[in-house]
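Researcher: Checking consistency across runs. Here is Glycosyltransferase again:
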Amino acid sequence: MAQQKYLHQRPIQNPFTNPFSSSPLSNSSLSNRPISLLSRNGLLLLLALLVILGVFLPWAGSPLFPFPNTLSPSQSKWRDYSLAQAVEFAAKNGTVIVCAVSYAYLPFLNNWLISVSRQKHQDKVLVIAEDYATLYKVNEKWPGHAVLIPPALDSQTAHKFGSQGFFNFTSRRPQHLLQIVELGYSVMYNDVDMVWLQDPFKYLEGRHDAYFMDDMTAIKPLDHSHDLPPPGKKGRPYICSCMIFLRPTSGAKLLMRKWIEELRDQPWSKAKKANDQPGFNWALMKTAHQVDLYLLPQTAFPTGGLYFKNKTWVKETKGKHVIIHNNYIVGFEKKTKRFRDYGLWLVDDHALESPLGKLE
């Protein structure tokens, strides 16, 4: 009875009582009283609205609402685009030109594309996007010319040479190239910090398995050998993995498989900040007796350490340069400035010559 008496004396809780107030609210006062955004109720309502918008509005890619399942129909199409479909679309006469790009390097992609367009080879370009932001941007501007091979990487980072991110980015390259030659296509790979001054296909003489360029700055004679150069101080040659042309032969496939194997055996670590190029050189040296290799002429395909640092040689070989590589320098800003200094940063005045046009 004592407990029952206590229950009768206890005040009945108004179902509209404000949980943050000690005084109950009536129905009329609740409906007539405006809610301030600065009040606790107002902040709760605002938070609820933001959650609803984030879930139901299809704002994929927005930094505020980065929900992966809210894609537009066109974005969903490219998310399912396979490498086989992309190569079949882009290839011309059995040949495709590929590059691998993350979002931070889209300006360099555009610069390279202008130079490729001037040589009338842009239609056979396929961009291997390393992140979804790049995939959607390129295909929005140039439908069908970008594909992503999962897993996607970080889209906002311009990876520094020697970093683990740079290794993760570049170590995927031989797998991409192997897939393409296994599909039966010839493939030219380019880094996008390159500029074409002439048509490189004119220099792919004969029917060799693999073509590549030297990364040494020492000047070679004009009639130098096209064989794989001898090993250097580190026990391997110094060939650049920035420009490679492969035919769909058993030799080219063997070379790519060996490159993949070398990268697996020598992964990145803090002590050994590896990149993909040493593995490529080990693969070249270890398969040289089984693969028909061809070293491209130095005058046509000079390394950046020669072209940008030996003005005398550049003057003596004027008119013979085909592809210029902006290497032997580290950093997005430094590469851009060097291209500008040498009149090779084309996007400032010639962006409309690129299939992507002006990038905003």
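Researcher: Does this match what you'd expect to see?
Model: One thing to look at in this run: The beta strands are 95-101, 125-129, 146-148, 186-190, 194-196, 210-214, 239-246, 293-295, 323-325.
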